[in-house]
Design goal:
The structure is a homodimer. The first copy, chain A, is an alpha+beta fold. Chain A is 41% helix and 21% strand. The C terminus of chain A is likely disordered. Bound molecules: manganese (II) ion (2 copies) and zinc ion (2 copies). One zinc ion binds next to helix 6 of chain B. The structure holds a DNA duplex.
DNA sequence: TCCAACTTTAGATTTAGTCTAAATAGTGTG
DNA sequence: CACACTATTTAGACTAAATCTAAAGTTGGA
């Protein structure tokens, strides 16, 4: 029944994120339609039934929800594409604070388990990215706010 | 010495990608400055010393280079951000052909090796994305050209 | 009831990337 | 070399994603 409603409200309370009708609608839609939607898709869908929602608010709400951990961003949060001429296999580390991308030495994946997870799909490439705080930033060098050099 | 030059030329020959001054300059810059640069950064840098390079050509060149495997794209090739309300830990599969994003069941990573690769960095989250052809597309359902629903 | 902080809004603006049609630069043939 | 043909580059128009802004609306607490 309105079980979901209660759960969502509980989620807002738990995370301390102020619940507003707009934030609620965005989260509810995302939970209901378990797809990996873009902000635009969410806006179109929610705005259709609830006029009280502007485009900017979808972005605001999504940021707030991600911030509180109720939603997770997938596939590189819409920044500019980046290119790498280092072809030796390696992984990447992206700093939450300064946005810098660093190379990590390669480590193997459990190929057996990976095969299983992939099911019948044909896999061309595996991409591993660790997110966290880089050493510069950890050392208090909290200079650059956003994506750096 | 001009060792690099020879290597790059060899790379063009090997992959069969026609070598043009513009493509050469883009690749050479990327190889020289081993950073994860954006198209704009590359344009600014290369255009400064070589006027014969337009913005569009940087994009063309990068696509051609990625296509030939001489350069690899990092961190989600600049599409719209996507959001996921499924918080249970899981990985993702992105289809090269139709762009759809599918959930994969979780599999553990070799945490020992990962720690080592991460060095001193504090890791908040690990993101694993497999790229390939989804089952729908594999079955010839080659309908939708670009990123789908 | 009143205030201050927070949130939403429409629309302008910025940024990344694509597209277009014309100019330019190879490439192969004779 | 002349020619035709194809591939590439170009400037600038255009589109799409996201952010910013300033004003209006909402909320919780003193
Ligand atoms: Mn790299
Ligand atoms: Mn998912
Ligand atoms: Zn950092
Ligand atoms: Zn597909």
């Amino acid at each position: 029944m309105s079980d979901v409603k209660a759960q969502l409200q509980e989620a807002f309370e738990r995370t301390g994120l102020r619940q507003t009708p707009q934030r609620y609608d965005v989260l509810a839609w995302l939970v209901r339609h378990r797809k990996h939607a873009t902000a635009e898709e969410i806006f179109d869908a929610v705005n259709r039934t609830n006029q009280r929602l502007s485009r900017a608010t979808v972005y605001n709400a999504l940021h707030a929800l991600v911030e509180s951990g109720l939603v997770r961003p997938v596939a590189g949060e819409g920044a500019a594409a980046r290119f790498d001429a280092t072809l030796d296999r390696h992984h990447h580390f992206i700093c939450d604070r300064c946005g810098s991308i660093e190379d990590l030495t390669w480590f193997d994946l459990p190929s057996k388990a990976m095969q299983a997870a992939a099911g019948g799909r044909s896999v061309r490439q595996v991409e591993i990215t660790l997110h966290g705080i880089c050493q510069r930033c950890a050392r208090g060098k909290t200079k650059q706010a956003t994506a750096s050099v």
